[in-house]
Design brief:
Blueprint (H helix, E strand, L loop, with lengths): L1 E8 L3 H21 L1 E9 L16 E2 L2 H6 L5 E4 L6 H11 L4 E3 L2 H17 L4 E2 L10 H8 L5 E7 L2 H13 L3 H10 L8 H4 L2 H15 L18 H9 L2 E12 L2 E12 L11 E8 L3 E8 L3 H20 L6 H4 L16 E11 L4 H11 L4 E6 L7 E8 L2 E2 H13 L8 E5 L4
Parallel strand pairs: 1-2, 1-4, 2-3, 4-5, 5-6, 9-16
Antiparallel strand pairs: 7-8, 7-10, 8-9, 10-11, 12-14, 12-15, 12-16, 13-14
Length: 433
Protein backbone atom coordinates (compact mmCIF):
# COMPACT_ATOMS: atom_id res chain seq x y z
CA UNK A 1 0.00 0.00 0.00
CA UNK A 2 1.41 3.39 -1.04
CA UNK A 3 0.52 6.74 0.53
CA UNK A 4 -0.09 10.00 -1.34
CA UNK A 5 0.08 13.28 0.60
CA UNK A 6 -2.39 15.92 -0.51
CA UNK A 7 -2.17 19.67 -0.07
CA UNK A 8 -5.51 21.47 -0.41
CA UNK A 9 -5.59 25.21 -1.07
CA UNK A 10 -9.04 26.60 -0.32
CA UNK A 11 -11.24 25.22 2.46
CA UNK A 12 -14.65 26.44 1.35
CA UNK A 13 -17.69 24.43 0.36
CA UNK A 14 -15.94 22.13 -2.13
CA UNK A 15 -12.73 21.87 -0.10
CA UNK A 16 -14.72 20.71 2.90
CA UNK A 17 -16.56 18.23 0.69
CA UNK A 18 -13.28 16.78 -0.54
CA UNK A 19 -11.97 16.31 3.00
CA UNK A 20 -15.27 14.80 4.12
CA UNK A 21 -15.26 12.37 1.21
CA UNK A 22 -11.68 11.23 1.87
CA UNK A 23 -12.40 10.80 5.58
CA UNK A 24 -15.50 8.77 4.78
CA UNK A 25 -14.20 6.55 1.98
CA UNK A 26 -10.41 6.82 2.07
CA UNK A 27 -10.06 3.20 3.17
CA UNK A 28 -12.32 2.09 0.33
CA UNK A 29 -10.19 4.02 -2.18
CA UNK A 30 -7.07 2.41 -0.78
CA UNK A 31 -8.57 -1.08 -1.15
CA UNK A 32 -9.53 -0.37 -4.76
CA UNK A 33 -6.33 1.33 -5.91
CA UNK A 34 -3.54 0.35 -3.52
CA UNK A 35 -3.05 4.06 -2.78
CA UNK A 36 -3.94 5.65 0.56
CA UNK A 37 -4.97 9.34 0.19
CA UNK A 38 -3.89 11.52 3.13
CA UNK A 39 -4.88 15.17 3.51
CA UNK A 40 -1.58 16.43 4.89
CA UNK A 41 -2.09 20.21 4.61
CA UNK A 42 -5.02 22.58 4.09
CA UNK A 43 -4.36 26.27 3.39
CA UNK A 44 -7.01 28.95 3.72
CA UNK A 45 -7.11 32.56 4.87
CA UNK A 46 -9.80 31.55 7.37
CA UNK A 47 -8.80 28.58 9.48
CA UNK A 48 -11.08 29.40 12.43
CA UNK A 49 -14.57 28.87 10.97
CA UNK A 50 -16.12 25.49 11.74
CA UNK A 51 -16.67 23.53 8.52
CA UNK A 52 -18.28 20.62 10.37
CA UNK A 53 -15.13 18.55 9.83
CA UNK A 54 -12.39 17.68 12.29
CA UNK A 55 -8.81 17.61 10.97
CA UNK A 56 -5.64 16.72 12.88
CA UNK A 57 -3.59 19.43 14.57
CA UNK A 58 -1.02 21.01 12.27
CA UNK A 59 -2.97 20.37 9.07
CA UNK A 60 -4.48 23.85 8.77
CA UNK A 61 -2.33 26.80 7.68
CA UNK A 62 -2.75 30.22 6.10
CA UNK A 63 0.42 29.91 3.98
CA UNK A 64 -0.54 28.40 0.60
CA UNK A 65 2.88 28.87 -0.97
CA UNK A 66 4.48 26.95 1.89
CA UNK A 67 2.16 24.04 1.12
CA UNK A 68 3.17 24.14 -2.55
CA UNK A 69 6.88 24.20 -1.62
CA UNK A 70 6.61 21.43 0.99
CA UNK A 71 8.62 18.43 -0.28
CA UNK A 72 6.34 16.05 1.63
CA UNK A 73 3.28 17.16 -0.37
CA UNK A 74 2.83 15.04 -3.50
CA UNK A 75 0.00 16.91 -5.23
CA UNK A 76 -1.95 20.14 -4.89
CA UNK A 77 -5.72 20.64 -4.96
CA UNK A 78 -6.60 24.23 -5.96
CA UNK A 79 -10.08 25.26 -4.74
CA UNK A 80 -9.74 28.99 -4.05
CA UNK A 81 -11.79 30.11 -7.07
CA UNK A 82 -11.28 33.20 -9.19
CA UNK A 83 -8.53 33.57 -11.76
CA UNK A 84 -5.83 35.74 -10.18
CA UNK A 85 -4.50 34.06 -7.03
CA UNK A 86 -5.64 30.65 -8.35
CA UNK A 87 -3.47 31.12 -11.45
CA UNK A 88 -0.46 32.04 -9.27
CA UNK A 89 -0.87 28.96 -7.08
CA UNK A 90 -1.51 26.62 -10.01
CA UNK A 91 1.49 27.75 -12.04
CA UNK A 92 3.76 27.66 -8.97
CA UNK A 93 2.76 24.07 -8.22
CA UNK A 94 3.19 22.93 -11.83
CA UNK A 95 6.60 24.57 -12.08
CA UNK A 96 7.50 22.70 -8.92
CA UNK A 97 6.65 19.48 -10.75
CA UNK A 98 3.52 18.80 -8.71
CA UNK A 99 0.23 17.68 -10.27
CA UNK A 100 -2.66 20.10 -9.70
CA UNK A 101 -6.32 19.20 -9.32
CA UNK A 102 -8.81 22.04 -9.78
CA UNK A 103 -12.55 22.67 -10.03
CA UNK A 104 -11.93 26.15 -11.45
CA UNK A 105 -13.62 26.44 -14.86
CA UNK A 106 -13.01 30.21 -15.09
CA UNK A 107 -9.29 29.65 -14.57
CA UNK A 108 -9.15 27.09 -17.37
CA UNK A 109 -11.34 29.16 -19.69
CA UNK A 110 -9.20 32.28 -19.23
CA UNK A 111 -5.71 30.78 -18.79
CA UNK A 112 -6.01 27.21 -20.04
CA UNK A 113 -3.35 27.39 -22.75
CA UNK A 114 -0.73 28.77 -20.36
CA UNK A 115 -1.61 26.17 -17.72
CA UNK A 116 -1.62 23.14 -20.05
CA UNK A 117 1.68 24.17 -21.60
CA UNK A 118 3.26 24.76 -18.20
CA UNK A 119 2.17 21.27 -17.11
CA UNK A 120 3.69 19.74 -20.25
CA UNK A 121 6.93 21.67 -19.91
CA UNK A 122 7.32 20.41 -16.34
CA UNK A 123 6.32 16.82 -17.14
CA UNK A 124 3.33 16.89 -14.80
CA UNK A 125 -0.44 17.23 -15.01
CA UNK A 126 -3.47 19.41 -14.47
CA UNK A 127 -6.67 17.50 -13.64
CA UNK A 128 -10.03 19.29 -13.82
CA UNK A 129 -12.99 16.90 -13.93
CA UNK A 130 -14.92 18.95 -11.35
CA UNK A 131 -14.68 22.10 -13.51
CA UNK A 132 -17.46 20.86 -15.81
CA UNK A 133 -20.66 19.23 -14.65
CA UNK A 134 -19.86 18.85 -10.95
CA UNK A 135 -20.26 15.18 -10.12
CA UNK A 136 -20.84 14.10 -13.75
CA UNK A 137 -17.65 12.46 -15.14
CA UNK A 138 -18.11 13.98 -18.58
CA UNK A 139 -14.46 14.90 -19.19
CA UNK A 140 -13.26 11.47 -18.09
CA UNK A 141 -15.82 9.96 -20.48
CA UNK A 142 -14.36 12.03 -23.34
CA UNK A 143 -10.73 11.21 -22.67
CA UNK A 144 -11.31 7.54 -21.83
CA UNK A 145 -14.56 5.96 -23.00
CA UNK A 146 -14.85 8.13 -26.13
CA UNK A 147 -11.12 8.39 -26.90
CA UNK A 148 -11.62 6.57 -30.23
CA UNK A 149 -14.34 8.93 -31.45
CA UNK A 150 -14.39 12.10 -33.43
CA UNK A 151 -16.87 14.23 -31.48
CA UNK A 152 -19.57 15.48 -33.83
CA UNK A 153 -21.63 17.47 -31.35
CA UNK A 154 -22.13 18.24 -27.67
CA UNK A 155 -25.24 19.75 -26.11
CA UNK A 156 -25.06 20.59 -22.44
CA UNK A 157 -27.27 21.82 -19.61
CA UNK A 158 -24.36 22.98 -17.49
CA UNK A 159 -25.80 25.42 -14.97
CA UNK A 160 -28.08 24.11 -12.23
CA UNK A 161 -29.27 27.58 -11.21
CA UNK A 162 -30.67 28.35 -14.66
CA UNK A 163 -32.20 24.91 -15.02
CA UNK A 164 -33.86 25.26 -11.61
CA UNK A 165 -35.35 28.62 -12.60
CA UNK A 166 -36.61 27.36 -15.96
CA UNK A 167 -38.11 24.23 -14.39
CA UNK A 168 -40.08 26.18 -11.81
CA UNK A 169 -41.23 28.76 -14.35
CA UNK A 170 -42.71 25.93 -16.41
CA UNK A 171 -44.23 24.01 -13.49
CA UNK A 172 -45.63 26.92 -11.52
CA UNK A 173 -46.09 29.73 -14.04
CA UNK A 174 -44.21 32.14 -11.78
CA UNK A 175 -42.17 35.09 -13.09
CA UNK A 176 -38.39 34.94 -13.49
CA UNK A 177 -37.53 37.46 -10.76
CA UNK A 178 -39.60 35.70 -8.10
CA UNK A 179 -37.99 32.33 -8.73
CA UNK A 180 -34.50 33.86 -8.92
CA UNK A 181 -35.07 35.33 -5.44
CA UNK A 182 -36.10 31.88 -4.18
CA UNK A 183 -33.01 30.32 -5.79
CA UNK A 184 -30.78 32.82 -3.99
CA UNK A 185 -32.53 32.14 -0.66
CA UNK A 186 -31.99 28.39 -1.15
CA UNK A 187 -28.32 28.85 -2.03
CA UNK A 188 -28.74 27.76 -5.68
CA UNK A 189 -27.83 31.23 -6.99
CA UNK A 190 -25.13 33.64 -5.94
CA UNK A 191 -25.64 37.31 -5.07
CA UNK A 192 -25.18 38.86 -7.57
CA UNK A 193 -26.29 36.02 -9.89
CA UNK A 194 -24.74 37.43 -13.09
CA UNK A 195 -22.34 34.56 -13.86
CA UNK A 196 -25.23 32.10 -13.76
CA UNK A 197 -28.17 33.88 -15.39
CA UNK A 198 -26.10 35.69 -18.03
CA UNK A 199 -24.68 32.37 -19.25
CA UNK A 200 -21.05 33.10 -18.36
CA UNK A 201 -20.66 30.09 -16.05
CA UNK A 202 -22.05 27.85 -18.79
CA UNK A 203 -19.70 29.42 -21.34
CA UNK A 204 -16.67 28.72 -19.11
CA UNK A 205 -17.63 25.05 -19.04
CA UNK A 206 -18.45 24.97 -22.75
CA UNK A 207 -14.99 26.16 -23.80
CA UNK A 208 -13.36 23.48 -21.63
CA UNK A 209 -15.56 20.80 -23.23
CA UNK A 210 -14.84 22.14 -26.71
CA UNK A 211 -11.10 22.32 -26.02
CA UNK A 212 -10.99 18.64 -25.12
CA UNK A 213 -13.30 17.61 -27.94
CA UNK A 214 -11.30 19.36 -30.67
CA UNK A 215 -7.76 19.43 -29.31
CA UNK A 216 -6.77 23.04 -28.61
CA UNK A 217 -7.58 25.67 -25.94
CA UNK A 218 -10.70 27.57 -26.99
CA UNK A 219 -10.87 31.30 -26.11
CA UNK A 220 -13.97 32.73 -24.47
CA UNK A 221 -14.55 35.15 -27.35
CA UNK A 222 -15.15 32.15 -29.63
CA UNK A 223 -18.33 31.40 -27.64
CA UNK A 224 -21.24 33.83 -28.28
CA UNK A 225 -23.18 33.86 -25.04
CA UNK A 226 -26.73 34.77 -24.04
CA UNK A 227 -28.33 33.94 -20.72
CA UNK A 228 -31.88 33.75 -19.41
CA UNK A 229 -31.99 37.06 -17.53
CA UNK A 230 -35.52 38.47 -17.60
CA UNK A 231 -37.02 35.60 -19.59
CA UNK A 232 -40.79 36.17 -19.78
CA UNK A 233 -43.14 33.50 -18.47
CA UNK A 234 -45.17 33.83 -21.69
CA UNK A 235 -42.18 32.39 -23.61
CA UNK A 236 -42.32 29.35 -21.35
CA UNK A 237 -46.06 29.02 -22.00
CA UNK A 238 -45.75 29.44 -25.79
CA UNK A 239 -42.95 26.87 -25.95
CA UNK A 240 -45.06 24.43 -23.96
CA UNK A 241 -48.02 24.84 -26.33
CA UNK A 242 -45.74 24.16 -29.29
CA UNK A 243 -44.31 20.97 -27.77
CA UNK A 244 -41.01 22.41 -26.54
CA UNK A 245 -39.21 23.29 -23.32
CA UNK A 246 -36.74 26.13 -22.90
CA UNK A 247 -33.26 25.16 -21.68
CA UNK A 248 -30.04 27.15 -21.45
CA UNK A 249 -27.86 25.09 -23.78
CA UNK A 250 -24.17 24.99 -24.46
CA UNK A 251 -23.97 23.96 -28.12
CA UNK A 252 -20.73 22.59 -29.57
CA UNK A 253 -20.40 21.19 -33.10
CA UNK A 254 -17.84 20.64 -35.81
CA UNK A 255 -18.90 21.39 -39.37
CA UNK A 256 -16.53 21.16 -42.34
CA UNK A 257 -13.51 21.46 -40.06
CA UNK A 258 -14.76 24.53 -38.18
CA UNK A 259 -15.99 24.55 -34.58
CA UNK A 260 -19.39 26.06 -33.81
CA UNK A 261 -19.78 27.11 -30.20
CA UNK A 262 -22.52 29.06 -28.41
CA UNK A 263 -24.49 29.36 -25.18
CA UNK A 264 -28.10 30.45 -25.55
CA UNK A 265 -31.63 29.78 -24.31
CA UNK A 266 -33.09 27.24 -26.72
CA UNK A 267 -36.38 25.50 -27.38
CA UNK A 268 -35.88 21.73 -27.29
CA UNK A 269 -38.52 19.10 -28.18
CA UNK A 270 -40.22 17.63 -25.12
CA UNK A 271 -39.62 14.10 -26.37
CA UNK A 272 -35.83 14.56 -26.41
CA UNK A 273 -33.97 13.18 -23.37
CA UNK A 274 -32.33 16.49 -22.55
CA UNK A 275 -35.74 18.16 -22.22
CA UNK A 276 -36.52 15.91 -19.23
CA UNK A 277 -33.57 17.23 -17.19
CA UNK A 278 -35.16 19.30 -14.44
CA UNK A 279 -34.44 21.32 -11.31
CA UNK A 280 -30.74 21.82 -10.50
CA UNK A 281 -29.53 18.76 -12.40
CA UNK A 282 -27.09 18.94 -15.32
CA UNK A 283 -26.81 16.78 -18.42
CA UNK A 284 -24.46 16.50 -21.39
CA UNK A 285 -25.53 14.91 -24.66
CA UNK A 286 -22.57 13.79 -26.81
CA UNK A 287 -22.54 12.35 -30.32
CA UNK A 288 -19.43 10.55 -31.56
CA UNK A 289 -18.81 9.21 -35.04
CA UNK A 290 -18.40 5.62 -33.77
CA UNK A 291 -20.48 5.44 -30.58
CA UNK A 292 -23.30 7.65 -31.90
CA UNK A 293 -25.39 9.27 -29.12
CA UNK A 294 -24.58 9.15 -25.39
CA UNK A 295 -25.88 11.16 -22.44
CA UNK A 296 -24.43 11.94 -19.00
CA UNK A 297 -26.66 13.12 -16.16
CA UNK A 298 -26.27 14.10 -12.52
CA UNK A 299 -25.81 16.90 -10.03
CA UNK A 300 -23.74 19.68 -11.51
CA UNK A 301 -22.73 21.42 -8.29
CA UNK A 302 -22.69 21.11 -4.53
CA UNK A 303 -20.28 20.21 -1.77
CA UNK A 304 -20.29 16.43 -2.15
CA UNK A 305 -21.01 15.94 -5.90
CA UNK A 306 -18.20 18.32 -6.83
CA UNK A 307 -16.04 16.89 -4.07
CA UNK A 308 -16.59 13.45 -5.59
CA UNK A 309 -15.20 14.63 -8.94
CA UNK A 310 -12.18 16.23 -7.23
CA UNK A 311 -11.50 12.99 -5.35
CA UNK A 312 -11.64 11.05 -8.61
CA UNK A 313 -8.99 13.37 -10.01
CA UNK A 314 -6.87 13.06 -6.86
CA UNK A 315 -6.75 9.29 -7.21
CA UNK A 316 -6.02 9.48 -10.96
CA UNK A 317 -3.25 12.03 -10.37
CA UNK A 318 -1.84 9.92 -7.56
CA UNK A 319 -1.69 6.80 -9.75
CA UNK A 320 -0.11 8.77 -12.60
CA UNK A 321 2.54 10.19 -10.27
CA UNK A 322 3.37 6.87 -8.64
CA UNK A 323 3.60 5.14 -12.05
CA UNK A 324 5.73 7.89 -13.59
CA UNK A 325 3.20 8.85 -16.26
CA UNK A 326 4.47 12.44 -16.54
CA UNK A 327 2.18 14.49 -18.77
CA UNK A 328 -1.28 12.85 -18.66
CA UNK A 329 -4.02 12.60 -21.27
CA UNK A 330 -5.89 15.48 -19.57
CA UNK A 331 -3.08 17.73 -20.83
CA UNK A 332 -2.14 16.14 -24.16
CA UNK A 333 -5.75 16.17 -25.40
CA UNK A 334 -5.83 19.94 -24.90
CA UNK A 335 -2.65 20.51 -26.94
CA UNK A 336 -3.10 18.33 -30.02
CA UNK A 337 -3.34 21.35 -32.35
CA UNK A 338 -1.84 24.82 -32.38
CA UNK A 339 -5.17 26.44 -33.19
CA UNK A 340 -8.72 25.76 -34.31
CA UNK A 341 -10.93 27.29 -36.96
CA UNK A 342 -14.20 28.70 -35.61
CA UNK A 343 -17.53 29.39 -37.24
CA UNK A 344 -18.22 33.11 -37.26
CA UNK A 345 -21.16 33.92 -34.99
CA UNK A 346 -22.83 35.70 -37.91
CA UNK A 347 -22.63 32.57 -40.08
CA UNK A 348 -24.01 30.08 -37.55
CA UNK A 349 -27.15 28.57 -39.02
CA UNK A 350 -30.08 27.82 -36.75
CA UNK A 351 -33.83 27.62 -36.56
CA UNK A 352 -35.50 30.18 -34.32
CA UNK A 353 -38.57 30.91 -32.25
CA UNK A 354 -39.68 34.53 -32.72
CA UNK A 355 -42.41 36.38 -30.84
CA UNK A 356 -43.68 39.66 -32.22
CA UNK A 357 -46.34 42.09 -31.08
CA UNK A 358 -48.05 43.53 -34.15
CA UNK A 359 -50.78 46.11 -34.59
CA UNK A 360 -54.04 44.37 -35.33
CA UNK A 361 -54.51 45.92 -38.76
CA UNK A 362 -54.48 44.74 -42.38
CA UNK A 363 -51.06 44.31 -43.96
CA UNK A 364 -49.07 44.08 -40.70
CA UNK A 365 -48.15 40.44 -41.16
CA UNK A 366 -47.40 40.97 -44.85
CA UNK A 367 -44.76 43.57 -43.96
CA UNK A 368 -43.11 41.14 -41.57
CA UNK A 369 -43.13 38.29 -44.09
CA UNK A 370 -41.59 40.52 -46.76
CA UNK A 371 -38.71 41.35 -44.43
CA UNK A 372 -38.12 37.70 -43.54
CA UNK A 373 -38.15 36.78 -47.21
CA UNK A 374 -35.69 39.53 -48.08
CA UNK A 375 -33.28 38.02 -45.55
CA UNK A 376 -33.61 34.42 -46.79
CA UNK A 377 -35.57 33.30 -43.73
CA UNK A 378 -38.28 30.74 -44.46
CA UNK A 379 -41.20 30.30 -42.09
CA UNK A 380 -42.20 26.89 -40.71
CA UNK A 381 -45.31 27.99 -38.80
CA UNK A 382 -47.16 31.07 -37.55
CA UNK A 383 -49.49 31.22 -34.56
CA UNK A 384 -51.42 34.42 -33.88
CA UNK A 385 -52.76 34.81 -30.38
CA UNK A 386 -55.97 36.60 -29.46
CA UNK A 387 -56.06 40.35 -29.97
CA UNK A 388 -55.16 42.40 -26.90
CA UNK A 389 -57.30 45.31 -25.73
CA UNK A 390 -54.47 47.70 -26.58
CA UNK A 391 -55.00 46.89 -30.26
CA UNK A 392 -52.08 44.57 -30.93
CA UNK A 393 -51.77 40.83 -31.32
CA UNK A 394 -48.92 38.56 -30.20
CA UNK A 395 -47.60 36.45 -33.06
CA UNK A 396 -45.36 33.40 -32.55
CA UNK A 397 -43.25 32.32 -35.53
CA UNK A 398 -41.09 29.23 -35.93
CA UNK A 399 -38.56 29.56 -38.73
CA UNK A 400 -36.52 27.25 -40.87
CA UNK A 401 -32.74 27.35 -40.66
CA UNK A 402 -31.01 30.64 -41.51
CA UNK A 403 -27.83 32.51 -40.62
CA UNK A 404 -27.54 34.46 -37.38
CA UNK A 405 -26.66 37.68 -39.22
CA UNK A 406 -29.87 37.43 -41.28
CA UNK A 407 -31.97 37.05 -38.13
CA UNK A 408 -30.31 40.05 -36.51
CA UNK A 409 -30.84 42.24 -39.56
CA UNK A 410 -34.41 41.10 -40.17
CA UNK A 411 -35.55 41.65 -36.59
CA UNK A 412 -33.94 45.09 -36.50
CA UNK A 413 -36.04 46.05 -39.53
CA UNK A 414 -39.19 44.53 -38.02
CA UNK A 415 -38.62 46.36 -34.75
CA UNK A 416 -38.49 49.64 -36.69
CA UNK A 417 -41.89 49.06 -38.34
CA UNK A 418 -44.79 51.23 -37.17
CA UNK A 419 -46.89 48.07 -36.80
CA UNK A 420 -44.38 46.55 -34.34
CA UNK A 421 -45.46 47.35 -30.80
CA UNK A 422 -42.54 45.96 -28.80
CA UNK A 423 -39.05 44.57 -29.30
CA UNK A 424 -39.09 41.12 -30.96
CA UNK A 425 -38.10 38.14 -28.81
CA UNK A 426 -35.95 35.43 -30.41
CA UNK A 427 -34.51 32.13 -29.20
CA UNK A 428 -32.82 29.21 -30.88
CA UNK A 429 -34.96 26.21 -31.78
CA UNK A 430 -32.84 23.06 -31.58
CA UNK A 431 -34.03 19.78 -33.13
CA UNK A 432 -30.68 17.96 -32.61
CA UNK A 433 -30.43 17.04 -36.28
Amino acid sequence: MKQINIGIIGFGTVGAGVVEGIQKNGALMAERTGITPVVAKIADLDIETDRGITVPDGVLTTDAMAVIADENIDLIVELVGGTAVARTFTLAALKNGKPVITANKALLADHGEEIYKTARENNTGIYYEAAVGGGIPILRAQRAGLIGNQIESIYGILNGTCNYILTRMEREGLPFDEILADAQALGYAETPPDLDIDGIDTAHKAVVLASMAYGAPVPMDACPTRGIRGLADQEIAHADELGYRIKLLAIIKETAGAVELSVEPSLVPKEHMIASVSDSFNAVFVKGDIVDETMYYGRGAGRLPTGSAVIGDIMEAAADKLHGVGTPVSVTMMLQKDTLEYCSADNIEKRCYVRLCLADQPGAMAQVMNIFGAHNISIASVVQKERHEEGYAPVVILTQSAKEAEFVAALAEIDALEVSCCEPIRMRLEDFE
